[in-house]
């Protein structure tokens, strides 16, 4: 039976484990979590262990904080991961660092986002050069339980992916706050203001996912000359909102680059 081992039962680890248990029932799922107290709270369908005991054909998912990685890698027997496919979701830990600490080139980096908790992550996955195609497929299938997965070959794209997809939900939520604030100010209850905003976000995302629709085609189509939407778009342009968002994404990308060293 295929075995997937998730190391770290925090926010992301728990979400991945739940997704695997629900979405890949044919797979044996193991969680590595040193805290006995936390192990006792985990889903009983998965085996919870205090330390990782490697098996060559494991798919290993590292969901620990980046600062815990060195001690995790140091604790493994020499060569233990040589044949293992290792997927790291740790922000900012480069493929080279993973490979050298784990003694294997069969490593992949993934950047999921917080929408993983509702099965709607946009996860960007970058395999190291030595990962066989079957290993990429296994990693992609495992991460698909938390949402969509885009595979890229160029690791430098992960910094921008961290900004657009990793931080994306929080950045969009910041903008959404202005919608709810405005609706509340106009007299809607907080619940109704949130309903208006979330349904607009969901509906817009669904329309954008239709064939041949782009953000630009959507807002142009909605902007009849001298109409209400055109007035709003013109005001956004006047206040250079597009440029502000681009600058924020550049700053986020730069921070991701700095943190990865
Ligand atoms: N949260 C997000 O939206 C998000 C998005 C993209 C990437 N990530 C990445 O995902 C990783 C996990 O993030 P998180 O938000 O889930 O953090 P978290 O909630 O702090 O969870 C980390 C978990 O790892 C455990 N842990 C620490 N050292 C360990 C070890 N040696 N062996 C096994 N377990 C160990 C911690 O246990 P203790 O608490 O007992 O120390 C904790 O349960 C991070 O590297 C982060 O960069 C997170």
From TrEMBL:
Q: Which UniProt keywords apply?
A: Amino-acid biosynthesis, Cytoplasm, NADP, Oxidoreductase, Proline biosynthesis
Q: Which residues form the Pyrroline-5-carboxylate reductase dimerisation domain?
A: 155-259
Pathway noted in the entry: Amino-acid biosynthesis; L-proline biosynthesis; L-proline from L-glutamate 5-semialdehyde: step 1/1
* Location in or out of the cell: Cytoplasm
Share an example GO biological-process annotation for this protein: L-proline biosynthetic process
One GO cellular component assignment for this chain's record is: cytoplasm
A Pfam family this protein belongs to? F420_oxidored
InterPro entries per the UniProt record, alphabetical? 6-PGluconate_DH-like_C_sf, NAD(P)-bd_dom_sf, P5C_Rdtase_cat_N, P5CR_dimer, Pyrroline-COOH_reductase
Q: What is its EC number?
A: 1.5.1.2
Instruction: Show where the Pyrroline-5-carboxylate reductase catalytic N-terminal domain sits.
Output: 3-92
Molecular function terms from GO: pyrroline-5-carboxylate reductase activity
Q: What class of enzyme is it?
A: oxidoreductase
Name the residues that bind NADP(+): 63-66
Q: Which family does it belong to?
A: Belongs to the pyrroline-5-carboxylate reductase family.
UniProt-recorded name of the protein: Pyrroline-5-carboxylate reductase
Q: Which organism is it from?
A: Streptomyces seoulensis
Q: Which gene encodes it?
A: proC
């Amino acid at each position: 039976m295929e075995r997937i081992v998730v190391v770290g039962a925090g926010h992301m680890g728990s979400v991945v484990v739940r997704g695997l248990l629900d979405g890949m029932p044919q797979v044996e799922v193991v969680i590595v979590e040193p805290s006995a107290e936390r192990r006792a709270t985990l889903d009983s369908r998965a085996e919870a262990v205090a330390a990782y005991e490697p098996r060559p054909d494991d798919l290993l998912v590292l969901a620990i904080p980046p600062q815990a990685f060195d001690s995790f890698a140091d604790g493994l027997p020499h060569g233990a991961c040589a044949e293992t496919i290792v997927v790291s979701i740790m922000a900012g830990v480069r493929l080279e660092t993973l490979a050298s600490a784990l003694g294997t080139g069969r490593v992949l980096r993934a950047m999921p986002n917080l929408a993983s908790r509702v099965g709607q992550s946009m996860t960007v996955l970058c395999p190291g050069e030595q990962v066989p195609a079957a290993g990429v497929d296994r990693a992609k299938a495992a991460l698909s339980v938390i949402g969509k997965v885009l595979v890229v070959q160029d690791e430098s794209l992960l910094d921008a992916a961290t900004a657009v997809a990793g931080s994306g939900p929080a950045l969009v939520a910041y903008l959404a706050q202005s919608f709810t604030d405005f609706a509340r100010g106009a007299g809607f209850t907080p619940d109704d203001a949130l309903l208006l905003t979330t349904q607009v976000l969901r509906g817009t995302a669904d329309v954008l996912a239709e064939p041949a629709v782009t953000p630009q085609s959507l807002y142009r189509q909605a902007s009849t000359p001298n109409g209400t939407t055109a007035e709003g778009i013109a005001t956004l342009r006047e206040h250079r909102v597009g440029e502000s968002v681009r600058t924020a994404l550049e700053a986020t990308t730069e921070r991701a680059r700095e943190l990865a060293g």
